[in-house]
Design a protein that fits this description.
The protein has 652 residues and is mainly β. It is 10% helix and 41% strand. The strands form 16 sheets. Strands 28, 30, 31, 33, 34 and 35 form a 6-stranded mixed sheet that branches. A hairpin with a 3-residue loop joins strand 2 (36-41) and strand 3. The longest helix has 37 residues, at 585-621. The chain is elongated, with a radius of gyration of 56 Å.
């Protein structure tokens, strides 16, 4: 008689070790000793055919060659006589442990006694599975990153996983999967971790995993460095570098981001193309060979080490000027000075002060004096006549070098007592446009030259040593001087031509210290003093409502830029310099005369003493000679020998 085997679920959930073998290699034997037949169908289902009709019969299914693995199937009492089938694939199996029952007491007992029965299960391995705990990434974790713990088992689905930190009593999380991802916010997230699995009610737990120590290190912060500067000009080469201060030998890869600054309008497409290039870069440095306006933005970066990242850098703004750099030269305190004084030329790139190297030129000749040209300044101390000239500078930075040449800056050094003078008519530094001006050198062989705007040239209306300009224009503004055929320059004067209504009348020459400085404000329509003018020095009002301003006993502190103003009309600014006073010629003559007289007097005294000693010596050596003739000179003057000696001394 054939009995049916009931359909039962797959039993892998209670098996400690899983293995699937080809079913045709298995035998099926009833525990009652009756043989049964195992039939495999389509690789997923199988049938057990048996002649057993016993109630609650169990069958053992074991490999053909080794009888160690069993599958337990129970025959329900109401399913006799039909062919049954178990679905769900090949059966799972377990190796059964050996059990021993002990009875205490182990002798005969009587009714009413207490008997203890103890079942001891012995096995070559622990029945409870033990998970294997791993972390990703392995090793030290960086704050700000995510660490994933995985509790590896050979268990099937349906298990929950429990996570513990520092002690086995402190459960921190329960998950339905065998992985647990956590954000590492601080170093305190490090420690010892364990896991185990469990299911059912009450919960059946596996063993705890071995301890896993998670080390946490503060994540380094990336820093963006921009060279040569965060503010650059069109055409420069820019290098952005992502620096990470990390004491370990670690290979980082890098991620870059750029945030838009303002509106790009005409550069929209170029900007987004550049943004894509930046986001794809994994290099430590970004190099922009020819920077343009659309490259501006806020750049930031992070470092990537396997699955972990550094802290993101602060965003650093790169600004790009729409113009190319333009170096400029200025002179402090002023470009007109007297020999012996000091002046400093300063080279600057407006809007930028970082990373520039400077070179200096005078009249297009390179100045190799590095001590004077250090940094962005060139100092003349003391200034001499040969320092007069047109100065330019060159600013450069970056690799390859990006350079900018300045416009020209004239510097004029006037002698204390000029041997050649430039004479002006009318004699003032400011002139109205359309007026006439005559300039002449007071010595033959000298011509008038000038520097206007950017170049040096001869006077356009030169006749001999005189330059006569019949109708001035603002383009005639500049510095004029006398120059010899050998190139010597003397007596430079600054001339300003103004097309406005008001000019300041002041001398083009420096004021002598101790003298009186007189200023007038002239109007184009009247060429006369304006009685209600205000006078200013270095931007501050010093005298108002007057047509003339006087500064008595001028001193060095009176140097500065002066101008006058009436209502809305303002004159150009003129630099008025103060020269130290020279001693009067009469005083010099008297001083020299007294010095010569004293020198002659000293020489006479010395000669007389010498003569007296000589006469005594002759008397002692030649006692037969007349003493009076030898030692007493003629009262009419010095002897002929003495006179000859004195003249010789003066000549020498």
């Amino acid at each position: 008689m054939t009995s049916a085997i009931s359909r039962v679920p797959r039993m892998s959930s209670v098996i400690s070790k899983a293995q699937k073998l080809a079913l045709e290699t298995w035998n099926v034997t009833s525990l009652g000793g009756k043989e049964s037949e195992l039939v495999q169908k389509d690789g997923t289902d199988f049938e057990i055919l048996t002649n057993s009709a016993a109630f609650n019969t169990f069958f053992e299914v074991s490999p053909v060659n080794e009888r160690v693995t069993y599958l337990y199937l129970r025959v329900p009492s109401n399913q006799f006589g039909a062919l049954g089938k178990i679905s769900g694939g090949a059966p799972s199996y377990c190796t059964l442990p050996r059990s021993t029952v002990t009875v205490t007491p182990d002798s005969a007992v009587y009714t009413g006694e207490t008997v203890n029965l103890k079942c001891v299960i012995e096995s070559d391995h622990n029945l409870k599975p033990k998970p294997d705990l791993r972390s990703e990434p392995a090793g030290a974790a960086l704050t700000g990153n995510t660490v994933t713990l995985t509790c590896n088992t050979t268990l099937s689905t349906g298990w929950d996983f429990y996570w513990y930190k520092n002690t086995l009593d402190s459960e921190i999380k329960m998950t339905e999967t065998n992985s647990y991802s956590m954000k590492i916010d601080s170093v305190s997230d490090g420690g010892q971790y364990w896991c185990r699995a469990g299911r059912g009610e009450p919960v059946y737990y596996t063993q705890y995993s071995d301890e896993l120590t998670l080390s946490v290190t503060v994540s380094p912060k990336a820093v963006v460095i921009i060279r040569p500067d965060e503010h650059v000009f069109r055409g420069e080469t820019v290098t952005l570098r992502c620096d990470i201060k990390w004491g370990r030998n670690t290979e980082w890869t890098y991620r870059w981001e750029i945030e838009q600054m303002g509106q790009y309008n005409h550069y929209y497409n170029q900007y987004h193309q550049h943004k894509n290039t930046v986001s794809r870069s994994s290099a430590q440095e970004l190099k922009i060979s020819h920077v343009e306006v659309f490259h501006r933005g806020k750049y930031s970066c992070t470092g990537q080490m396997d699955t972990q990242s550094s802290q993101r850098s602060d965003a650093v703004a790169l600004t790009v000027s729409s113009d190319e750099a333009q170096a400029a030269v200025r002179v402090s305190p002023q470009p007109w000075l007297t020999e012996g004084h000091s002046a400093t030329l300063i080279c600057e790139v407006p809007g930028s002060s970082t990373g520039w190297m400077f070179s200096w030129f005078r009249d297009a000749d390179h100045l190799s004096d590095g001590s004077r040209g250090a940094g962005g300044s060139y100092t003349l101390s003391p200034a001499a006549l040969q320092h007069t000239g047109v100065y330019t500078c060159r600013a450069e930075r970056g690799e390859p070098a990006y350079s900018s040449h300045s416009s020209a800056q004239p510097l004029w050094v006037t002698g204390v007592s000029a041997s050649v003078h430039l004479v002006l008519d009318p004699s003032r530094s400011q002139h109205f446009s359309s007026d006439s001006l005559s300039l002449s050198c007071d010595s033959a062989g000298w011509t008038v030259r000038r520097y206007t705007h950017t170049n040096t040239q001869d006077c356009s209306a030169q006749t001999g040593s005189t330059c006569a300009i019949q109708s001035l224009s603002t383009s005639d503004t500049g510095v004029y001087w006398c120059e010899s055929e050998s190139g010597e320059k003397r007596h430079p004067l600054n001339i300003t031509v103004h097309d406005g209504a008001v000019i300041l009348e002041s001398s083009a020459d420096p004021v002598i210290e101790g003298e009186t400085l007189t200023l007038h404000c002239l109007h184009r329509s009247t060429i006369s003093s304006i009685l209600t003018a205000d006078f200013y020095k270095d931007g501050s009002l010093i005298q108002n409502q007057t047509g003339e301003m006087n500064v008595t006993t001028v001193s060095k502190s009176d140097e500065g830029f002066y101008y006058c103003k009436i209502e809305r009309e303002e004159s150009p600014h003129s630099w008025i310099s103060v020269r130290a006073s020279s001693p009067p010629l009469l005083v010099i003559g008297v001083s020299v005369g007294l010095s010569v007289f004293l020198l002659l007097l000293i020489l006479l005294v010395l000669l007389l003493r010498h003569k007296k000693k000589k006469g005594v010596k002759e008397f002692r050596t030649y006692p037969h000679c007349n003493v009076q003739q030898t030692s007493a000179p003629n009262r009419s003057g010095i002897s002929q020998m003495e006179n000859s000696t004195l003249q010789s001394g003066l000549l020498h």
